[in-house]
Amino acid sequence: MTDSATMAGLDPATLADVLRLAGSDGFDRVQEQIRRTGGCSDPIHLHGSVVVRDAQTRHVLHSYSTDTEPGGRLRIACGNRRASRCPSCAWTYAGDTYHLIRAGLVGDQAKGTPDTIRDHPRVFATLTAPSFGPVHNRPGTRPCRCGKNHPEDTPELGTPLDPDTYDYAGSVLWNNHASDLWRYFTIYLRREIARRAGLTQKAAREQSRIAFGKVAEYQKRGAVHFHAVIRFDGPDGPDSPPPAWATLDLLTDAIRAAAARVAVDVDPAGDQPARTLRWGTQLDVRPIRAFGDGQDITEQAVASYVAKYATKAAETTGTVDRRIGNKEALALLGVPDHPARLIAACLDLHPLYPDRKLRDWAHMLGFRGHFSTKSRRYSTTLGALRQVRADYRAAQQRRALGLPDLEDEQTTTLTLAHWSYAGHGHTPGESWLAANIRRDIQHNREIAREELPALLDLEGASA
Questions:
Q1: Could you say which of 195, 272, 313, 419 is the most buried, measured as most Cβ atoms within 10 Å of its Cβ?
Q2: In terms of domains, do 298 and 361 share one?
Q3: CA-to-CA distance for 53 and 257, rounded, in angstroms?
Q4: Four-point Cα dihedral 358, 360, 366, 368, nearest 10
Q5: Residues 206 and 248 grouped into a single domain
Q6: Which residues contact 457 (CB under 8 A, 6 or more apart)?
Q7: What is the pLDDT of residues 86-123, one digit of tens each?
Q8: Domain check: are 225 and 100 in the same one?
């Protein structure tokens, strides 16, 4: 339990619940459950039981029931990817994303990608939205168009110089169609590759494959842009080398040409004109190197960058991370003017484009796509990574209980389990306890990260 000095400043209701929790008979077990979730902010509560029997003798080897738990419930982590919702689960999600992206860059036989993919041409591409009106920015060492040199953390960055002339409708419609723009980009990219190789599209597919992993990020102005790792593979995917014509320069040129070709038409509706949505002109394509030379980005940097933004969403612009039903809620939630105008534009446009579900995605400023996606053969999957972690923890638990290893061919056990949903979340006191546990875990991770280089140097010296 955290010492009483850290309890100063708690509101009376939270303080009362902390004292109630600390004095309860099940406090130690509640604390253990919260610690096992990593300090999850919104854990799932389950009712249920598990019985493990010998499959031949039917002898009970182990039994567990939530009837013995405080409140008759077992807490498990929520698994939410958003750092604004649950920092603990978002940290795990970011770690999985890092390993997924990294496996597609350096290879990992355990994750189904060979080490030889390091020799395949690959780039880190950033595709952005076009301009919807001038905004406050930091153009290098020059002042902003408003005449000021804005500090890096000033709230004006990304907001329009003139909100009354800013194309808010165009911005949210672009966000709403961003996934379509990406889909057409992948189609045109394969066509541009075939054209530059002097092959038919069928022949190009028979000789090469394109793999990618991407993540969406919000700019301060509220427009989505995509960061993508794009890699050339051979005809059998990552297990085969790309053909000689599949060069880094060809891939870079094809990406630029494909992005320039993409156009998504939006029909006129109400007072809204017909629009043709395109990528912005700020297209960045950089080669990825195994080791940095001061100019090119490295595998480690790319994987870390993608993982960082996999847990963030529109709340980075000042909006909220939950659905908003009406404009009146914007003032109650304290949403700043610029994101509030973008949300209001979504609500106003919803009746004109009902199939685009702009009202449902107003809190996302219109964007309705997946934040992190990959092609089938890029590398492993998030599901596979989670399964490996679950299997590892299950094996640890079986050893702790003295149960036979499932990998043992002689093992014949039968597990009968029944679970039902019993709610979610914390009481105020439990939330305070979870936040302290999460802080302590993060502190320990930071200490371990700082000590790791020294330990490696020590091991190298002793060797």
A1: 313
A2: yes
A3: 62
A4: -110
A5: yes
A6: none
A7: 999 999 999 999 999 999 999 887 777 888 999 999 99
A8: yes
Residue 206 reports pLDDT greater than 80: yes
320, burial (CB in 10 Å: exposed 0-12, middle 13-18, buried 19+): middle
Rounded Cα distance, 348 and 341, in Å? 10
Position 152 in a domain: no
pTM: 0.85
39 found inside a domain: yes
Residue 369 tokens, joined: 């796509």
Written as one string, the DSSP assignment of 114-156 is: -GGGGGS-EEEEEE----SS-B----TTSPPTTS----TT-TT
Distance, CA of 67 to CA of 65 (rounded, Å): 5
Domain boundaries, position 426: 4-81+382-462
What sign does the CA torsion over 185, 189, 192, 196 have? positive
109 and 91 housed in the same domain? yes
Rounded distance between C-alpha atoms, residue 13 and residue 7, angstroms: 12
pLDDT value, residue 6: 59
